[in-house]
Here is the input.
Amino acid sequence: MATPGQGRNDDRPAAPLRDQAHPAAGQSWSAQGYAHHAGFVSELGGPLVDLLDPRGDERILDLGCGDGALTARLAQSGAEVVGLEPDPSMAAAARARGLTVLERDAHDPFGEAAFDAVFSNAALHWMREPAQVLRNVQASLRPGGRFVAEQGGFGNVAAVVTALRGALAARGHPCPDPGPWDFPRPEAQSVRLEAAGFRVAEIALIPRPTPLPTGIAGWLETFAAPYLAAVPEAERPAIRADAEVLLTPLRDETGQWWADYVRLRFVAVKSD
Ligand code: BEZ
Here is the structure.
């Protein structure tokens, strides 16, 4: 785990980090666990990298770079790539790939006209204050710079969320309200992007049922912590097991589990 001042290749923010450095209450990350249960997240990022079309003379920020698997692919273009990642375990894994990582929360400023492009895959839906993050992205871009991103969109993991809500209610536990994840419609995200100073070049919802390498149990173990934050630890496995039973329709005839992913993909250009 990275500790302040020890072997870091980032530049520390002048402002203090937020008290809660993780993107959603109750969620923390293990780079090893993430690679095991959710390596598909970066593996499926190829089309987004193609959409970004990074060039060798560019400076690019990867917002929410996680363990850097996709960031490393951006760097293959020859571009100067910087990851932004608040979680120490993930940031350390990205640095172990030789990447430069700013270990900070995207809700705090991370640059002034410093990047030609900002890229983000599967991170924005964790942001508690999306408008603030979009303003920070806009400020970090050079004039005309582009923001190319994919996140969960409206309807994303709706079955999973419904099962978690049902499993919590059945055992008398409250459900976090609002939920921990932001899954906007294209119209709503366009309004936010324009308010932050972007012109939306393209934006679309893309249903993408996604096979889960370690089943729905692995997904719940990796990602469902925010729903279980108020539940005594000893009871959490039972709630995950109840949710898994409710989610049986997400298992196909071969036994393969699928997540009901819906991606929101967009390209926005800094407009002033
Ligand atoms: C997603 O990539 O869509 C996602 C991952 C974890 C929690 C919620 C959504």
Notes: Confidence is low (pLDDT under 50) at residues 1-23. Residues 122, 125, 152, 156-157, 181, 223, 261 surround benzoic acid (CB under 6 Å). The longest helix spans residues 158-170.
